[in-house]
Recover the amino acids of this structure.
């Protein structure tokens, strides 16, 4: 499945994902991010990829100057339509393939949130992180928030699939198939409800936390800390419960 993501992030994705990630949750996440990174009014934030701007907009409302970057025309159009009263000097969007360098640099922080890498070969992930590393100033930080292989394996040990009812009544089912040798999961999404029914396939290369840190280090970033999700709680993998999502913060060296 090559470059599946070019068509995956369309109107159906937007309708489903907006119900999974309601704006209240996104605003809470943006506030958590602000506090985790000790951001300040006027700081320059790169949200890459930004999807439909669910975090770019609240970050700009909190006082950052934000550039949201994504490849999906549909999601960027939704982001721009929902900018509200945030002026263009504070919040801009750019359509760009993050595997290639950005035309703008000197950001204080670059964020890659909600499992936004692992969509192709390892080399493509390295290219994406190299783009983020070069976009921040020396001493600037890159934050990556993601699911990971340890979480996937402990979740799969409990259930082979997951189903939920979305706010509009749609039944949504994911039946992932994991290839532990390739380290790649095939995501199989099915849904049916008032907005119609359909299915989608995606492929996600799921790294361990160790591998994620190595990837970041391989492009010139120095590991700073790992947290449980978007919180200030240090990441640990103890106990019988699934370890939770991972956030890694790394800093540009030179
Ligand atoms: C799971 S979504 C997350 C978006 C956003 N970070 C959020 O939290 O909602 C992943 C996004 O990555 C974008 N994407 C995937 N590959 C990309 C690439 N090579 N360049 C730019 N955007 C890409 C997709 O269009 C999609 O919007």
């Amino acid at each position: 499945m090559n470059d599946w993501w070019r068509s995956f992030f369309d109107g159906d994705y937007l309708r489903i994902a907006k119900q999974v990630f309601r704006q209240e949750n996104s605003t809470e996440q943006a506030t958590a991010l602000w506090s985790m990174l000790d951001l300040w009014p006027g700081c320059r934030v790169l949200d890459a990829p930004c999807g439909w701007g669910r975090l770019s907009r609240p970050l700009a409302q909190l006082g950052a100057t934000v550039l949201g970057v994504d490849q999906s025309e549909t999601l960027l159009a939704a982001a721009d339509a929902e900018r509200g009263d945030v002026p263009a000097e504070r919040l801009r969007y750019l359509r760009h393939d993050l595997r290639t360098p950005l035309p703008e640099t000197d950001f204080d922080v670059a964020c890659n949130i909600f499992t936004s890498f692992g969509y192709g070969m390892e080399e493509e992930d390295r290219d994406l992180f190299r783009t983020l590393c070069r976009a921040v100033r020396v001493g600037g930080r890159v934050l990556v928030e993601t699911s990971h292989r340890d979480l996937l394996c402990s979740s799969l040990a409990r259930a082979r699939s997951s189903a939920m009812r979305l706010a509009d009544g749609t039944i949504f089912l994911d039946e992932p198939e994991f290839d532990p040798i390739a380290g790649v999961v095939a995501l199989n999404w099915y849904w049916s409800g008032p907005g119609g029914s359909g299915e989608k396939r995606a492929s996600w290369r799921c790294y361990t936390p160790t591998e994620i840190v190595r990837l970041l280090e391989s492009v010139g970033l120095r590991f700073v800390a790992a947290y449980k999700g978007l919180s200030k709680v240090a990441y640990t993998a103890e106990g019988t419960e699934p370890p939770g999502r991972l956030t890694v913060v790394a800093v540009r060296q030179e």
About this structure: The CA atoms of residues 138 and 216 lie 15 Å apart. The mean pLDDT is 95.
